[in-house]
Amino acid sequence: MTFQLISLRDANQNFSRLIAAVERGEAFCITRRGQEVARLTPSPAPAPLEKLAGVQDRLPAATP
Q1: Contact at 8 Å (CB) between 23 and 46?
Q2: How confident is the model at residue 49 (pLDDT cuts 50, 70, 90)?
Q3: What is the pLDDT of residue 16?
Q4: In angstroms, how far is CA 45 from the centroid of its own chain?
Q5: Which residues of 23-44 are buried (b: 16+ CB within 10 A; e: fewer)?
Q6: pLDDT of residue 2
Q7: Measured on CA atoms in the order 47, 7, 27, 21, is the torsion positive or negative?
Q8: Does the predicted model carry a pTM greater than 0.70?
Q9: By CB count within 10 A, which of 22, 40, 49, 59 is most buried?
């Protein structure tokens, strides 16, 4: 995967645009003073929010 370099300042000022680009499959390497501090990449497979939050484990069982 090829990463585009972006400064932390630019990432902060354009976060919504970065997220939109990541949704299209792009990946970014975020740098601070020229040193890599984070990578922003697309998720391999989106999981349902309920599963991520653990909500399913706390919901009562459905009754017919």
Answers
A1: no
A2: low
A3: 96
A4: 11
A5: eeebebbbbeeeeeeeebeeee
A6: 93
A7: positive
A8: no
A9: 40
Residues in CB range of 25: below 8 A, 6 or more apart: 42
Q: How confident is the model at residue 3 (pLDDT cuts 50, 70, 90)?
A: very high
Contacts 24+ apart (CB under 8 A), 10-16: 11/40
Give the Cα-Cα-Cα angle 29, 8, 52 (nearest 5 degrees).
Answer: 65
Residue type, 63: T
The amino acid present at 60, given as its one-letter code, is: P
pLDDT value for 37: 98
